[in-house]
Design goal:
By secondary structure, the protein is mainly α. Helices cover 96% and strands 0% of the residues. It has three helices and no strands. The radius of gyration is 66 Å and the shape is rod-shaped.
Length: 166
């Protein structure tokens, strides 16, 4: 250290200080502004990129929310359509059951009417046959009874007695 102090030259020191100041002024005038400008531009670019990334993130969230909302709407519409389809199916089944029941009732009523008509026809035919058979029997009995003149007179007397009693 002593040697440095011994070799010290004030003229050289002043000269180096002046050169250093000139170098600093030149750097400030020609290099410092472009360096600061490029740093500012870079900072603005980074800030713009950050803002763009934030906007993209927000847009992505909005898109996801919209997609979720659309998906929820689609599910609701599907549920509504399924519910309507079930209701239509139930209504169609109920209508078909009602139609089938009314047709069955109509067929049963027609069958009952047909049975009643057949019954009336059978009873009428039976009455007709019974009446005819009764007439035949009566005719045979009357022929047998009235074959003799004295029997005829007895029969007429008996009928007259029955007629006056009633």
């Amino acid at each position: 250290m002593d040697q440095l102090l011994n070799d010290f030259s004030p003229g050289l020191f002043v000269m180096q200080a002046v050169i250093l100041l000139i170098l600093i002024l030149l750097m400030k005038k020609f290099a410092w502004k472009p360096i600061l400008n490029s740093l500012d531009e870079r900072e603005q670019g980074i800030q713009g990129a950050l803002e763009a990334a934030e906007k993209a993130r927000i847009e992505m969230q909005n898109l996801q929310a919209d997609n979720e909302k659309a998906l929820q709407q689609a599910r609701e519409e599907r549920d509504i359509m399924l519910k309507e389809a079930r209701e239509i199916r139930a209504k169609m089944i109920a209508e078909a059951e009602g139609d089938a029941k009314s047709q069955a009732d109509k067929i049963i009523l027609q069958a009952q009417e047909a049975i009643a008509a057949e019954k009336r026809a059978a009873v009428a035919e039976l009455k007709s046959q019974v009446a005819e058979l009764s007439l035949q029997i009566a005719e045979k009995v009357v022929k047998e009874e009235l074959s003799d003149k004295s029997k005829q007179m007895q029969y007429v007397d008996k009928m007259l007695q029955d007629a006056t009693l009633n």
